[in-house]
Write a structure and sequence with these properties.
Layout: H1 2-26, E1 31-36, E2 43-52, E3 55-63, E4 90-97, E5 104-111, E6 116-125, E7 130-137, E8 140-148
Antiparallel strand pairs: 1-2, 1-8, 2-3, 3-4, 4-5, 5-6, 6-7, 7-8
């Protein structure tokens, strides 16, 4: 009877550990995200966020609006991204994780529709299923909620 209890407890502990690791792994901006149009509430694009040496970057993987120009260029960009294809365009640069917090900042995010770059802050919410993305200039800015692609 004791060996059965030991095995059952060990199995429960292992299962709990696996679930906890899965939840922790999702509390990061790394992954694929759907952006939502502020005006229509429709899915707008898919962004892939990656990490290299502790620094995040993000690229447009898919344009999902019905009227999206799949061959469109970033005409409004003013830096090295000017006239680059929207698909594959790097819109997130340089964000780093704050110590002991599920918060990434210190980078920039580009709005390719107007070519403006904003100071970036990203915070995973709802166990990593959503991502609050805040772009700001000085005290002015806006926050979008992106949804993780499953």
């Amino acid at each position: 009877m004791k060996s059965t209890q030991f095995i059952a407890r060990g199995t429960f502990f292992l299962a709990a550990l696996c679930v906890n690791v899965g939840v922790q792994a999702q509390m990061t901006p790394v992954g694929n995200w759907h952006t939502i149009d502020d005006k229509t509430g429709e899915v707008k694009s898919q962004i892939q966020v990656t990490e290299t040496n502790g620094v995040l970057s993000g690229r447009v993987e898919k344009l999902l609006r019905k009227d999206a120009d799949q061959k469109g260029l970033c005409k409004e960009c003013t830096d090295d991204r000017k006239d680059k294809p929207m698909l594959g365009l790097e819109i997130i640069r340089g964000a780093k994780k704050l110590a002991d917090k599920d918060l990434w900042e210190g980078g920039k995010i580009l709005d390719p529709e107007n070519g403006k770059e904003y100071t970036l802050r990203m915070t995973p919410i709802e166990a990593g299923k959503k991502l609050e993305v805040r772009g700001s200039i000085a005290f002015f800015g806006r926050t979008q909620t992106w949804v993780r692609v499953q």
